[in-house]
Amino acid sequence: MKKIILTLMAVSFTFATANLVEEASKLDVKKVCDVKANGAKKVLDVAKKYNPEAIKLGIEFKRLGIRNKEYIKYTDKAIKLKKKETVIKYLDKKKKEKTKKFPTNYAAWRACTFAVRALQQKKEAEKTWRLAVPGDGYKY
Amino acid sequence: MKKKIISSLLIGSVVLLNAGDFNAQAEKDRKELQKYFETKFADRKNASKFFPYSTKEELDKNFKWGIKGDEFRLGSYAFNKTGRSQYEEIKEMPPYEDAIDEGKELYEKTKFKNGKSFKECFPDPAIAGDYPKFIKGKGVITLTGAINKCLKDNGEKTWKQTKGKMAKLEAYFAATSQEKGKKVNIKIDSKEAAEAYARGKKEYYSQRGYLKLSCASCHVQGAGQRVRNEYMSPLLGQTTHFPVYRLKWEGLGTLERRLKGCNKDQGENPHKPGSKWMNELAYFMAYMSNGMPVDGPDVRK
User: Fold this and answer.
1) Interface predicted TM-score of the whole assembly (ipTM), two decimals
2) Domain with B262 in it: what CATH number?
3) Which of B150, B215, B218, B262 is catalytic?
């Protein structure tokens, strides 16, 4: 019984993951992450939807020492408080707390593109990885 | 009786044949990789095809050509003349020598609370070329993983997998392996091991992070090209010399430490040392250097 439940859980996890990767791969990232057209809140909602999947798959983006989940967390706070500037707190490689400031619209755009592109790249890599293998897809 | 012997022999040969087959793809990959790098660094004539961004002067003066097999264990110093001369100067007084001695002491003198020591887990310290290994039911285990397993099994606290005591003990294992003329000897002897290798290979060649770089972007297609003033090293031979003393780190680090750094440089939240992802990546990388001499510890920029 335990085995069946575990198998069902694994199957549903795989299915859900494949679904979100599939869904993200069909998005036009320029359109869905356009803050001018959609507003920062809607754009951040896209990031909130897809980034947890990127974390699960081990492909979450990180830039300037800041994980995308941190961009999302602090941009969300700034939007709720109607702040034009997002202050992101994060730990550097020596585990010291640091802060960086970004315009809120910019931070929302970044969080959104990072979340969507991570999943899109996952899908793209399924087709492209062999093109780089000598003796396989890579010709020289 | 005769029939029984024949059928036993037949079964035995089928089993043997299959055992040999599990590494067939990996062996093909390794040979193709070696052929690629030997072609890439064969002579000046083809250079503009492989190094489109290098100047004529750079290719004429700073590149060594005609590099073969085992020479690739030197990384970018195999072909980069300036880097090679700096490397040789540093090697006159290697900055990792004290670490080898400290590693030897850790191996010989560490007594666990239960009275046992590392000698029980690793009777022969010349084992650097034998890892990562695939253990049935447990997956890929790297040398750092095996050291931590030894500590854990004996009721001790595990060590950080990137530097410190771990790197020092590995430095002793690598130096002993080098002294005894050991070679990289990675085995793929089951279907599960072949699958772990295949996953590691796929991750190595997959583009990732916000920079959309694969490991191969820098260390296969990009090997020999420059990022700022540093030449990127080839995948072939890359795991033979770990742990390394990196001038950037001002200290010794394990392969896991380097992989974590590379993963971060790709623009991704790096995978943890000891994770299945990192172990399988290391398994693939190490297999690509199979048969090359263990060359660690060594020094890199």
Assistant:
1) 0.89
2) 1.10.760.10
3) B262
